[in-house]
Amino acid sequence: MEKFYTLIKKNHLLEKGSTIVVGVSGGPDSLALIHLLNKLKDKWELKLVVAHVDHMFRGEQSKEEMLFVLDYCKSLNIMCEAKQIDVTAYATQHQLSSQVASRECRYAFFKEVLDKYQSRYLALGHHGDDQVETILMRMVRGSTGEALAGIQIKRKFHNGYIIRPLLANTKEQILSYCLENYLVPRFDPSNDKTDYTRNRFRKYVLPFLKEENPLVHERFQHFSETFLEDESYLQVLTQQQMNTVLKRKEKSVVEIDTNLFLNLPLPLQRRGIQLILNYLYENIPASLSSIHIESLLALLTQNHPSGSLDFPGGLKVIKSYQNCLFTFEHDKVKEYRFELDIPSVVKLPNGFKITCDVMKIASPEFNGNASFLLNSKALVRPLIIRTREPGDKIKLKGMNGRKKVKDIFIDEKIPLHSRYSWPVVEDGNGNILWLPGLKKSTYEADSASEDEYVVLQYKEL
């Protein structure tokens, strides 16, 4: 197994004197892995700790596998941490598939063992055939970015790294190694079932590829490594360029300038979208794929100024003119209706406030659309601040007739998501007096003729 040692040195997988936690199921891959690492133990001054999880899917059979691993570790004088976890109950409780639940439970246990022994390395037995299967599965599923590179030889995990020293070896080579070294691994019968996607690739696709090229695993590993190098370079470029198009970046909201974004090269656009999704999602949904990214690119390049998409997990993507908003908070914008006392200050859900004061003299600074003057004596109370309603119309200052508030939003190119929370100010007769920051009505007082004014101002919080 020279490839095993070559891969460790080439990729700097281990440091002398390290504590290595090794995931061992009892199957041929993990059994060969712990056997090989045990050979290195004295030379590299390694401390080995085996971690085994009984997922309790197969009753006594899986329990026997746990006892087998414990006995094998005892024979090698290696510490073994074994745990039985009712994965079926966990899957039911969290509404997960058995495969996803198994992975979550297993990796949570690995973290516990890493912490207990203050280890930075988790060694797993994935091999070259696993790599071929993984890359093909992800391509078919529509994965993007680094995911297309398949299984990484070394990647960050918890407080250290996951390492996979067997990726250069095939399953056949591992089985031969077990036979030559009198290892008697256990075999999980579920690996032969074609219910699982991976098993179908293993049974039907992989043999065909090996007939075409017996070293196909090496070609896929080369693809994985070079793809990751290219992807890392493009990711750096993407992060640099995305900083120039971001307008807003909050915990659950990202807004970009669409025009600036579309000026980026297409490869950076795709990766830019992926960066946004990675930032917003705590855990990327399994149903999210390259199809969603292509749909978004189509939305951003279409001639229509507005539109929206629903992404998995409640993420809403809203295009409006030259803005595109990614948000989980779209449905959280509720209708509001506040009564404005005189004087007072009302804080609005859109990050602005409206102040109300009484003054004797109107300053010239109140002439813009961010302020509104009312005749204190002629004012019909109460003053109401609310969200827009269907059919809202305003009698604009300096114009005949009334205009729909909806049309004003369109004319002013107000983004769709902002329209839901934009304030409308009306008097006690239901007349719309003012669209703060946008338009005034004919009901505004003449700043040169009144004795006392109620002054409304629209400001950021």
UniProtKB/TrEMBL annotation:
Residues 383-456 form the Lysidine-tRNA(Ile) synthetase C-terminal domain. It catalyses: cytidine(34) in tRNA(Ile2) + L-lysine + ATP = lysidine(34) in tRNA(Ile2) + AMP + diphosphate + H(+). Keywords: ATP-binding, Cytoplasm, Ligase, Nucleotide-binding, tRNA processing. It is found in: Cytoplasm. It holds the Pfam family TilS. Its EC number is 6.3.4.19. Gene3D superfamilies: 3.30.465.60, HUPs. Ligates lysine onto the cytidine present at position 34 of the AUA codon-specific tRNA(Ile) that contains the anticodon CAU, in an ATP-dependent manner. Cytidine is converted to lysidine, thus changing the amino acid specificity of the tRNA from methionine to isoleucine. Belongs to the tRNA(Ile)-lysidine synthase family. The N-terminal region contains the highly conserved SGGXDS motif, predicted to be a P-loop motif involved in ATP binding. HAMAP family: tRNA_Ile_lys_synt. This is tRNA(Ile)-lysidine synthase. It comes from Metabacillus rhizolycopersici. The gene is tilS.
